[in-house]
Amino acid sequence: KENTDVMYVLGKAYYHMGYYYSELAIRYLDQALERGCDNKDIYEYLGLSYSRLDMWNQAVENFERSLEINPSDVLVLTLAQEYIKAGNMDKAGYYLDRASDDNSVLKEKSLLLRGQRHLWHGGTDL
């Protein structure tokens, strides 16, 4: 368990060091998972690290796992944003429709993402 915790902390630390450490973050977070780490935010950090490297399929996969474990509107909007980047407007729309607009900051982010989706989809009605 001790090695698992070390791998997890190293992975998060490397993520917070920035873009050039994203591969190390992924390596250590993956090692922590292989050793049985069950921290609720590990998949979110993996998703964030993959997103930094524009590896959208892996980012989305990890964000979806994170959403299953620890649901939040922030993650729902993050998934919508990743699907927009990946060019999958249908999935982006699905997650935008799932997002709550109870929080004004989240509502603003949702509206901005809807605008991005609209523009990236050629300005056509979705």
What is shown here, in short?
With 126 residues, this protein is mostly helical.
SSE blueprint and pairings:
Layout: H1 2-17, H2 22-34, H3 42-52, H4 56-69, H5 73-86, H6 89-98, H7 104-120
Helix pairs in contact: 1-2, 1-3, 2-3, 3-4, 4-5, 5-6, 5-7, 6-7
What does this structure look like?
The chain is mostly helical and 126 residues long. It contains 7 helices and no strands. It has helices spanning 2-17, 22-34, 42-52, 56-69, 73-86, 89-98, 104-120. Helix 6 (89-98) packs antiparallel against helix 7. The protein is elongated. The mean pLDDT is 90.
Number of helices: 7
The topology string of helices and strands comes to HHHHHHH
Residue stretches low in confidence (pLDDT < 50, at least 5 long) are: none
Q: How would you characterize the largest beta sheet?
A: none
Strand element count:
0
Query: What is the radius of gyration?
Result: 16 Å
Determine the N-to-C terminus distance: 48 Å
Helical fraction equals over 70%
